[in-house]
């Protein structure tokens, strides 16, 4: 590995949080008490926490300073106006509705934009997004390129929508029966894979031709912009902000979890250009989130989000963020560890099918691999496979995705390259005795979003 291609952290550490490492005997007890579900392990019992990058970011000194100027008025907070102006400037949409986090925006959009029986087309599903779409009567159809389902295929922009699939659905279902296209940038469950500007543009042209709206899942749009700048000809001299603005110029709105690329710990928003949808969204946000000028967020959180969104557009920051993830991926690849290739923007995904070939997918190999990684090292990760996919709401049968993965998700501005080395060493050590990893079965299975609270036992 050429260590010189990985930049040093573009920040200085001003505050620290001590962490501890439990003994293996303690971790054996902890993982059993948690029902082999890493979501149910207490934070204080985790050494390196790669469960998620959602809300686990380290804020800057300017963001912390912004907390002190929080205007906690119930309506018309100046922090709301700062956030609204920032989002409009950077994203280019006409209207912004604040929410407590991304799934609040997903809920509102699904409520106002989907009629029962309509189809929602997307470049691979995401768990909470699909839940809200189906809860409001929508039927999800995956139109991502087939290569996205092949973990070992190393090609750029695996998040692209397949235009032939899109046209086929339009022809078969009819444009009027399609609620909207949900275009994720990047695609989380495909391994954090980006979408090219060329594909975004072509999808937009086809959608406009048939009068179909496009709503982005903008959660990791800054990471997507970095890949475009790095890998797509014609964008190498564009700023990250210019690329983000152009991406969204091809859509009708977006949902945003501010807990990722906005570099904060809570919050989100919904954007749109349509005036009628905006009025409907404002009516619903009052019922479920709060006033249209805070939407479940405190004034101080809106101020930190506005500042963080601008900081995320800085090239030095996003370059380090993506390359730190890539560093971990390259260390694992050099050791022969099976992962999703190429390495995406926010996480390294272990390919549990190839990691644990002795386990059937119905024995939840990714869930067991995540639990055993914690047992081995105190590193917390999460399953992204058959457990996360859930069950078909009509048949009750398990959705069986092609990808069965464990996500090693890197929080922003939290860990160093040495932490990545610790994680890599732990995965490599576990791989050497992977045959010891046992399958799991449900002890408790919730009806919705089961991966959050389900419990398991070893077979």
Tell me what the CATH architecture of the largest domain is. Answer: 3-Layer(aba) Sandwich
How many structural domains? 2
Intertermini distance: 39 Å
Q: CATH superfamily assignment of the largest domain?
A: Type I PLP-dependent aspartate aminotransferase-like (Major domain)
Kindly report the CATH topology of the largest domain.
Answer: Aspartate Aminotransferase, domain 2
For the record, what CATH class of the largest domain applies?
Answer: Alpha Beta
Task: Sum up the overall morphology in one term.
Answer: globular
Oligomeric state? single chain
Structural class: alpha/beta
Mean pLDDT: 97
Helix run count: 16
**Describe the biggest sheet?**
7 strands, mixed
Strand order of the largest sheet: 2-8-7-6-5-3-4
- Helix proportion range: 25-40%
Strand content: 5-15%
Low-confidence stretches: none
Task: Give me the Rg, rounded.
Answer: 21 Å
Instruction: Please provide the ordered H/E string of secondary-structure elements.
Output: HEHHEHEHEHEHEHHEEHHHEHHEEHEHEE
Number of strands: 14
Modified residues (N6-(pyridoxal phosphate)lysine): 260
EC number: 4.1.99.2
Protein name: Tyrosine phenol-lyase
Domain Aromatic amino acid beta-eliminating lyase/threonine aldolase: 49-425
């Amino acid at each position: 590995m050429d260590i010189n291609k990985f930049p040093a952290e573009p920040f200085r550490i001003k505050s620290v949080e001590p962490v501890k490492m439990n003994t293996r005997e303690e971790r054996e007890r902890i993982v059993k008490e948690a029902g082999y579900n890493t979501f149910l392990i207490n934070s204080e019992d985790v050494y390196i926490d790669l469960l998620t990058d959602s809300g686990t970011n380290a804020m800057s000194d300017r963001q912390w300073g912004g907390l002190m100027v929080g205007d906690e008025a119930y309506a018309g907070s100046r922090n709301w106006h700062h956030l609204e102006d920032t989002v409009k400037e950077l994203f280019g949409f006409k209207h912004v509705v604040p929410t407590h986090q991304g799934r609040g925006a997903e809920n509102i959009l699904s409520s106002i934009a989907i009629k029962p029986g309509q189809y929602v087309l997307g470049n691979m599903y995401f768990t909470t997004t699909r839940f809200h779409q189906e809860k409001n009567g929508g039927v999800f159809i995956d139109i991502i390129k087939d290569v996205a389902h092949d973990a070992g295929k190393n090609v750029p922009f695996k998040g692209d929508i397949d235009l032939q699939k899109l046209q086929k659905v339009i022809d078969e279902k009819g444009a009027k029966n399609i609620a909207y296209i949900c275009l994720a940038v990047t695609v989380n469950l495909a391994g954090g894979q980006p979408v090219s500007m060329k594909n975004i543009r072509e999808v937009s042209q086809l959608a406009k031709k048939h009068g179909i709206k496009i709503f982005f899942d903008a959660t990791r749009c800054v990471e997507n912009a970095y890949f475009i700048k790095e890998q797509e000809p014609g964008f190498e001299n564009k700023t990250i902000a210019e690329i983000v603005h152009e991406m969204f110029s091809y859509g009708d709105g977006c949902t945003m979890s501010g807990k990722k690329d906005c570099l904060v710990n809570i919050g989100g928003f919904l954007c749109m250009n349509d005036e009628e949808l905006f009025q409907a969204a404002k009516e619903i946000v009052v019922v479920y989130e709060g006033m249209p000028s805070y939407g479940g967020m405190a004034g101080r959180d809106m101020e930190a989000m506005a500042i963080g969104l601008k900081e995320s557009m800085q090239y030095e920051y996003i370059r380090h963020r993506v390359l730190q993830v890539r560093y971990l991926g390259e260390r694992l690849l050099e050791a022969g560890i099976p992962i999703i290739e190429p390495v995406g923007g926010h996480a390294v995904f272990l390919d549990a099918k190839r990691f644990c070939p002795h386990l059937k997918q119905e024995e939840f190999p990714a869930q067991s691999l995540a639990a055993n990684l914690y047992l081995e090292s105190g590193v917390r990760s999460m399953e992204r496979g058959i457990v996360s996919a859930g069950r078909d709401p009509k048949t009750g049968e398990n959705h069986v995705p092609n990808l069965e993965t464990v996500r090693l998700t890197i929080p922003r501005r939290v860990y160093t390259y040495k932490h990545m080395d610790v994680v890599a060493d732990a995965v490599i050590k576990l791989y050497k005795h992977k045959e010891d990893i046992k399958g799991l079965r449900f002890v408790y299975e919730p009806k919705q979003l089961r991966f959050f609270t389900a419990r398991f036992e070893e077979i």
